[in-house]
C-alpha cells in the first residue's frame, strides 16, 4: 500500500488531537451547565414531531439554491429525520440509516463502507450509483459511485448532524449534481445564542468503544460556533481477531449573521477504516434452502483473521511486491472545507452561494471470495488430476493438511484511490410578482481520482472462521502456492481520471392560489472527462518458471498508455404541482426527465452511453391529531443502462433498459397519548425491458416488498421520560443476478430499544437483530448461474448485537 502524504498524516493527527482537546473542553463545561440544559419537556416535543412525520418542517433539499419550503407544500417525495430520530434508529453505518427511507433498499451488511444502495427499482449491480450524499446541500463527492467507492463511505453520522433530508426523484434532476435517484442531505448543527452540547459514551456487545461530543454557542452576538466529532475502536461484530474498525472524525463550523443574511463555513476531518465484509461460505440444498456451513457462524463469522491479515502480493512491475494489511480495510482519510451564504436585497432579490472542497484517500484492502468450498483433493484435481501431492501444510503452524480438508480461495484485493473534488452552486432568485419567484443558477464541479488496483491475488484457505492459509507442493517439484497465495493479480488498473461538469439551471415557482402551487425547472449540463490509463497484459508468467504455478497467469501493467476524452451535453427538466385540500392535507403530481452521465469506470470499459430516466409521481400528505400519512405512487422508465461485473476474471459490461412501478409510504397512527404506530413500506415491480437480454426478468438485488413497523410508547415518569420501541422488518425475496437464477429468500428482522431521560442524562439500549435472523443480502456476484445443492458464497445480515450509550446533554 502506498505511503500516505504528509498532508494526510497531518489530517489524521489533527482528527485525534482536535477531538481529544475538544472533548476535554466539553467536560470542563459540564459542571457549570445546569442553567443551560434542555429540559425533558423539550425532548418530549422533539419526539412528538418525529411521530408526526414533521410535515410542518421547513425543507431545503430539492429547492432552487436551497430555499426553504414547508414539507407539506413540497410537490415531491421527501423523508426527514431529526437528530433525535437518528439516535433512536441507532444506525451501524451511514448506509444503514438509509433503510428508514421508503423507496430505498440499502444492503449495509458489507460493513461501515461496503454498502450497496438501490432506489425505486433503478437497475444496478452494486455500490450506489443512483445515490448522492450531501452535506449542507452540496455533494460530498460529485460522482455518486466509482468502483470501490460509494458516497456513504465518505461520511460518518455523529452528534454534529442536526437532521437528514432524503429526496427521491422529484426536481432532483435539475438541481445540485442532477441526481435522478435519491439525494440524501445531512444538515449540520450550527451554533446559537446559548451554549449547549452533548458528550456520549457508547459500547457494544461485540466490544466496540466509542465517544462522541458536540458543543456549540456564541462567540459574539452575531457570530456562533459548533464543534464535535467521535472516535471509536472495535474488532467488529464479525470478529476479525484484530482492531479492524477504528478511527474518528472532527467537525467545526462558524456562522456569521448580518441584517440581510448569513454566512456559514465548515470543515471536517475524517480518518476511519473498517473491514470490508463480503460473502461467507454457506450450504445450499437442492431446493435452494440455506444452511450454516459447518463451524462458520452466519451472523458473526469472518474469513478475515490474524492468520491471513498480512500478505505480500506480486505486482509484476520490475519484480515489485507490496505488503498489504487487511486492517486497512475500506474507509476514508479525507479533509473537507465548505460553506454557504444567503443574502436578501430590496426589490425581491436573493443571492445564494454554496461550495465544497474535499481531498484525501479512499482505499480498499479486502479479502474477496473466489472459488467456493470443496475438499483440498478436489481443488488440486482441478489443477492437475494426475498430480501427486508432495506436501500440504498450514502456513502459520506448519502442521500437515489432509486431502479431505475443506478449502476455498479468496483474493487479497488492493485498490488505492486518491480523490479530490471542488463543487460550487451559485444562484440568483427574483420575485417577479407576488407569489412568483424565478431562479437562475450555475452548478460547477471538478473532480479527480488517481487509481492503482491489483485485483486477484487468490489465497488457498481452510474453509473456517478466521481462515488459515495453506501451502501445497506437488511431488514432481511444482509449487502450487507461495505462502498460501495460489494466484497473482488477474486485473490491474493504473489510471488518472479528471472530470468536470458545468450546468445552468432555471426554475420558476408560482403560488397561483393560496392552495395551488406549481413549479418547473430546466437544466443544461456539459460533462468533460479526460483520463490516462496504463494498458495491461494478461496471462503473464511473472518469473518465467512454469513450475511456480502461483504466478503463471498474471495480469501486469505494461508501460504503454491510452487516453479517454469524453465531452457531451444533455438537458433535464421537471414540472410539479401541489394542491392543499385542507390546511393539513395536500396532493402533488410530478414528472421529470433526467440523465446520468457515464463516469470514470464506465468510460474505462467502453460504456459511454448516457442513461435516460423518465419519472412520474403522484403523492398524498396529511397530518391530523391521530394520523400522519406521506404516500407516493411512482413509475420510471430507463434506457442505456450499463451493468459492469467481474466474471471469471473478465470485466463484462451489459447494456439494458428497465421500467418500474411502485408505491412508497410513511404512516403514523397515534391512538392515544404516548403510543405511536409507524409503518414505512415500499412495493415495487421493476423489470428489464425488451431491449435487454434479460427481458422480463426482475431487476436484481431489490425486493418487491419491504416493510418496517415501529411501535413506540413514551411514558412520563416522576423523574423523567422512558421510551420503549421496537421495529419489525420484512424484506421480500430478490434475485442476486439479472439472470434471476440466484434467489435470495425473504426474511424478517426484529430490533428493539429503550431510552431513559433523567434530567440532562440519557441512557439508551438498542438490540439489533434480536432474533438473530440470517437473511441474505448478496450472493456471489462473480459467479453466473444458480447455486444450489452445493457449498456457496453469500452475505447474510449481521448477527444479534446490543449497543449501550450514556449521554449528558447541556
Account of the 3D structure:
This protein is mainly beta and 810 residues long. The protein has a single domain, classed as Maltoporin, Chain A (Beta Barrel), CATH 2.40.170. It has six helices and 46 strands. The protein has a 22-stranded antiparallel barrel. The protein has a five-stranded mixed β-sheet with strand order 3-10-11-6-7. It is globular, with a radius of gyration of 27 Å. Mean pLDDT is 90; it is low at 1-41.
Low-pLDDT parts are 1-41
Name of the CATH first level: Mainly Beta
Task: Specify Rg, calculated over alpha carbons.
Answer: 27 Å
Helix content: under 10%
- Under CATH, the topology can be stated as Maltoporin, Chain A
Amino-to-carboxy terminus distance: 44 Å
Q: What CATH architecture label applies?
A: Beta Barrel
| Structural class estimated from helices and strands | mainly beta
The coarse overall form would be globular
Features:
single chain, 810 residues, mainly beta, Maltoporin, Chain A, 46 strands, globular, disordered N terminus
Task: Compile the SSE list and pairings.
Blueprint: H1 6-30, H2 40-50, E1 58-59, E2 69-70, E3 77-82, H3 83-89, H4 94-97, E4 104-107, E5 116-119, E6 131-135, E7 138-139, E8 145-146, E9 149-150, E10 161-168, E11 182-188, E12 196-204, E13 209-220, E14 223-234, E15 245-258, E16 261-274, E17 280-284, E18 290-292, E19 310-314, E20 321-325, E21 330-345, E22 349-361, E23 364-369, E24 374-375, H5 376-383, E25 389-394, E26 406-433, E27 436-456, E28 458-462, E29 470-474, E30 489-511, E31 516-540, E32 554-582, E33 585-596, H6 600-604, E34 611-623, E35 627-647, E36 650-672, E37 675-688, E38 705-717, E39 720-731, E40 734-735, E41 743-744, E42 747-758, E43 761-768, E44 776-778, E45 790-796, E46 801-809
Parallel strand pairs: 6-11
Antiparallel strand pairs: 1-2, 3-10, 4-5, 6-7, 8-9, 10-11, 12-13, 12-46, 13-14, 14-15, 15-16, 16-21, 17-18, 17-45, 19-20, 21-22, 22-26, 23-26, 24-26, 25-29, 26-27, 26-28, 27-30, 30-31, 31-32, 32-33, 33-34, 34-35, 35-36, 36-37, 37-38, 38-39, 39-42, 40-41, 42-43, 43-46, 44-45
Amino acid at each position: 500500500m502506498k505511503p500516505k502524504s504528509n498532508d494526510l498524516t497531518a489530517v489524521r493527527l489533527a482528527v485525534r488531537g482536535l477531538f481529544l482537546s475538544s472533548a476535554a473542553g466539553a467536560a470542563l463545561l459540564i459542571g457549570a451547565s445546569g442553567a443551560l440544559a434542555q429540559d425533558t419537556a423539550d425532548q418530549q416535543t422533539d419526539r412528538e414531531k418525529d411521530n408526526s412525520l414533521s410535515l410542518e418542517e421547513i425543507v431545503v433539499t430539492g429547492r432552487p439554491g436551497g430555499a426553504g419550503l414547508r414539507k407539506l407544500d413540497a410537490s415531491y417525495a421527501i423523508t426527514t429525520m431529526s437528530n433525535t430520530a437518528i439516535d433512536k434508529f441507532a444506525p451501524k453505518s451511514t448506509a444503514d440509516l438509509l433503510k428508514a427511507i421508503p423507496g430505498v433498499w440499502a444492503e449495509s451488511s458489507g460493513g461501515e463502507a461496503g454498502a450497496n444502495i438501490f432506489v425505486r427499482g433503478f437497475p444496478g449491480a452494486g455500490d450506489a450509483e443512483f445515490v448522492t450524499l450531501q452535506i449542507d446541500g452540496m455533494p460530498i463527492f460529485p460522482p455518486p459511485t466509482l468502483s470501490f467507492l460509494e458516497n456513504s463511505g465518505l461520511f460518518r453520522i455523529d452528534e454534529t448532524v442536526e437532521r437528514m433530508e432524503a429526496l427521491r426523484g422529484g426536481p432532483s434532476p435539475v438541481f445540485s449534481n442532477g441526481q435522478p435517484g435519491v439525494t440524501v442531505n445531512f444538515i449540520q448543527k450550527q451554533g446559537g445564542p446559548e451554549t449547549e452540547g452533548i458528550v456520549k459514551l457508547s459500547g457494544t456487545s461485540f466490544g466496540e468503544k466509542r465517544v462522541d461530543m458536540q458543543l456549540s454557542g456564541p462567540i459574539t452576538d452575531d457570530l456562533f460556533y459548533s464543534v464535535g466529532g467521535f472516535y471509536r475502536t472495535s474488532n467488529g461484530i464479525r470478529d476479525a481477531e484484530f482492531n479492524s474498525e477504528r478511527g474518528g472524525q472532527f467537525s467545526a463550523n462558524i456562522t456569521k449573521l448580518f441584517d440581510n443574511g448569513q454566512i456559514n463555513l465548515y470543515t471536517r476531518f475524517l480518518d476511519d477504516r473498517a473491514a470490508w465484509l463480503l460473502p461467507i461460505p454457506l450450504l445450499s440444498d437442492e431446493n435452494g434452502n440455506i444452511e450454516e456451513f459447518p463451524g462458520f457462524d452466519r451472523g458473526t463469522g469472518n474469513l478475515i483473521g490474524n492468520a491471513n491479515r498480512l500478505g505480500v502480493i506480486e505486482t509484476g512491475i520490475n519484480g515489485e511486491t507490496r505488503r498489504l494489511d487487511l486492517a486497512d480495510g475500506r474507509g476514508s482519510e479525507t479533509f473537507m472545507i465548505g460553506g454557504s451564504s444567503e443574502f436578501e436585497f430590496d426589490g425581491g432579490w436573493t443571492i445564494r452561494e454554496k461550495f465544497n472542497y474535499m481531498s484525501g484517500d479512499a482505499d480498499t484492502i479486502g479479502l474477496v471470495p473466489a472459488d467456493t468450498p470443496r475438499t483440498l483433493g478436489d481443488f488440486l484435481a482441478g489443477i492437475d488430476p494426475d498430480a501427486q501431492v508432495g506436501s500440504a501444510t498450514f502456513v502459520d503452524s506448519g502442521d500437515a493438511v489432509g486431502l479431505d480438508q475443506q478449502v476455498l480461495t479468496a483474493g487479497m484485493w488492493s485498490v488505492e484511490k486518491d480523490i479530490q473534488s471542488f463543487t460550487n452552486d451559485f444562484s440568483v432568485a427574483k420575485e417577479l410578482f407576488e407569489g412568483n419567484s424565478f431562479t437562475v443558477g450555475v452548478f460547477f464541479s471538478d473532480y479527480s481520482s488517481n487509481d492503482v488496483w491489483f485485483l486477484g491475488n487468490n489465497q488457498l484457505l481452510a474453509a473456517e472462521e478466521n481462515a488459515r492459509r495453506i501451502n501445497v507442493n506437488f511431488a514432481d517439484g511444482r509449487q502450487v502456492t507461495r505462502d498460501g497465495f495460489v494466484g497473482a493479480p488477474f486485473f490491474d488498473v493504473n489510471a488518472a481520471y479528471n472530470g468536470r461538469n458545468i450546468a445552468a439551471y432555471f426554475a420558476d415557482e408560482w403560488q397561483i392560489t393560496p392552495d395551488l402551487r406549481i413549479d418547473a425547472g430546466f437544466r443544461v449540463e456539459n460533462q468533460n472527462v479526460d483520463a490516462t490509463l496504463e494498458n495491461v497484459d494478461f496471462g503473464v508468467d511473472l518469473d518465467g518458471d512454469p513450475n511456480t504455478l502461483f504466478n503463471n497467469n498474471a495480469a501486469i501493467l505494461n508501460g504503454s498508455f491510452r487516453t479517454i476524452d469524453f465531452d457531451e451535453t444533455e438537458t433535464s427538466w421537471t414540472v410539479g404541482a401541489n394542491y392543499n385540500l385542507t390546511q393539513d392535507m395536500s396532493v402533488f403530481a410530478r414528472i421529470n426527465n433526467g440523465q446520468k452521465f457515464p463516469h470514470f469506470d464506465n468510460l474505462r470499459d467502453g460504456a459511454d452511453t448516457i442513461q435516460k430516466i423518465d419519472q412520474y409521481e403522484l403523492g398524498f400528505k396529511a397530518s391530523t391529531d391521530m394520523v400522519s400519512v406521506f404516500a407516493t405512487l411512482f413509475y420510471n422508465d430507463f434506457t442505456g443502462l450499463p451493468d459492469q461485473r467481474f466474471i471469471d476474471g473478465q470485466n463484462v459490461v451489459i447494456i439494458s433498459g428497465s421500467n418500474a412501478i411502485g408505491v412508497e409510504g410513511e404512516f403514523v397512527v397515534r391512538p392515544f397519548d404516548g403510543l405511536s404506530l409507524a409503518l414505512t413500506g415500499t412495493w415495487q415491480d421493476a423489470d428489464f425491458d425488451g431491449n435487454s437480454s434479460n427481458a422480463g426478468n426482475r431487476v436484481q438485488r431489490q425486493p418487491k416488498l419491504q416493510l418496517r413497523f415501529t411501535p413506540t410508547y413514551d411514558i412520563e415518569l416522576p423523574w423523567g421520560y422512558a421510551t420503549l420501541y421496537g421495529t419489525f422488518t420484512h424484506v421480500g425475496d430478490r434475485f442476486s443476478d439479472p439472470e434471476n437464477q440466484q434467489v435470495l429468500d425473504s426474511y424478517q428482522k426484529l430490533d428493539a430499544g429503550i431510552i431513559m431521560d433523567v434530567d440532562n442524562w440519557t441512557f439508551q439500549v438498542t438490540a439489533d437483530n434480536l432474533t438473530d435472523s440470517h437473511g441474505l443480502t448478496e450472493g456471489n456476484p462473480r459467479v453466473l448461474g444458480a447455486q444450489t445443492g452445493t457449498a456457496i458464497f453469500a452475505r447474510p445480515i449481521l448477527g444479534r448485537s446490543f449497543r449501550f450509550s450514556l449521554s449528558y446533554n447541556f
